[in-house]
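Example record used in the benchmark description.
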Amino acid sequence: MADRDTVMETEEKEVVSRNFIEQEIDKDLAEGVYNHVQTRFPPEPNGYLHIGHAKSILLNYGLAQKYGGKFNLRFDDTNPTKEKTEFVESIMDDVKWLGADFEDRLFFASNYFDQMYRCAVFLIKKGKAFVCDLTADQIREYRGDFTTPGKESPYRNRSVEENLALFEEMKEGKYRDGEKVLRAKIDMASPNINMRDPVIYRVARMSHHNTGDKWCIYPMYDFAHPIEDAIEHITHSICTLEFEDHRPLYDWVVKECEFENPPRQIEFAKLYLTNVITGKRYIKKLVEDKIVDGWDDPRLVSIAALRRRGYTPEAIKMFVEMVGVSKANSSVDYAMLEYCIREDLKLKKPRMMAILNPVKLVIDNYPEGQAEMLEVPNNLENPELGDRKVPFGRELYIEREDFMEEPPKKYFRMFPGNEVRLMGAYFVKCTGCEKDADGNITVVHGTYDPETKSGSGFEGRKVKGTIHWVAVPTAKKVECRLYENIVDEEKGVYNEDGSLNLNPNSLTVLKDCYVEENLADAKAYDSFQFVRQGFFCVDAKDSTPEHLVFNRIVSLKSSFKLPSNN
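Model output (structure tokens):
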């Protein structure tokens, strides 16, 4: 990542970091190429956005913010075969949630179809476009390859008048899908295959989500996109590296259509996460096969899924900033994203007590029927979060793994004869347990020492283990969902045949969990740290006030290590 930023010195000798895109923008502004900065995020509404799109959104919005410019949201909806209103709505929600404010600048490429048509007619009149009758296969064959120049279409030299008449007939619906296309007239011998007379309009009898049945011809992406940018006065069209080879065509379109102050395309490296599924066709299949419960299933890395799982815009922004802006593609470990959410939440969220695999603890010498309210700090690392009252009594739930009848060495939790601290409460000495007919432990017994109450200043003896608990009478029963990577990380994402290597243990559902009563009113997207368990978030889809469902956002332990500064 060392090449992602270049350090520049200002006149005041202050050290300022500039990525290569910012350097180019600085140069354009200094040379008077542009007098403002305007960026955009232009998704095609054919699926849900994922973590890679978040980088593009935050980069484009961040540049507009940095230079006091404007940021547009534009739907590149020029292909009616795959686009849906559902995707339009989900994308808008995602962009807003990430904090990228497009204000009133919401645009649809389809609103520019009239202007695109006029641009096409203008090119025909200039002798820069022609109607071609070759089939898609023939066009492909004529195009040549990286070692062989292309052959000119036999229809390339049609007159302007004939091309205008044929293009008008295409528009009027006189031809079947694929029967005729409009092609740019550039150079069939160009070393860049994208410049070998690319198709810029095709016939497609499809109903469009925005324009209905008004059009039966639609512009191709490479023709439409630069026109959209030019119409919106975008200055810098920031896109990913796969469009680098398309830049000459982008520049050709805005030049030949004679736009004033045309936009400039700059490419950056995509964000790749290791062992994740981002391909729309794969996710679509997972949804259709009911392996996941939708595009927002918390095991996915769509923005909607990350939000549902409990990730925050701040964590995603931190992640994107850590990855940086580079010209070279690389992969980033998912553990870095997990590191960012831990860092964001650890000082913000209260640390609550929740028992995921309960067994009952009975304190035999605690008075029956008695209950007391104990004061517990919400977050020991952040005193500003204050304290809360937690009920305590004779019967508690503890984690099943916090008791062992015959413990190994260095096990400091409950076992017969051992004393532990109950978090925020008292020392309790384990006296034994009860079992059912199958030998399963059903109840753990112990006695408490009233003098050892937390905060009392007791220093008579020390204990090595501290465990958490929830009082039985006031405990709220909830469901907890523990997520792992949906991909089998040892095998990688894909098999040789292209199928997915799925992890059969990617979801564990625990139905009989208990949380302290302070969590009873938790609402969708509320998140907490469950002591010793991880960070959890109320599921926005399945949780109800009567049946709370918590998703584990991330465990407490991290395998990620920050890179050293050496």
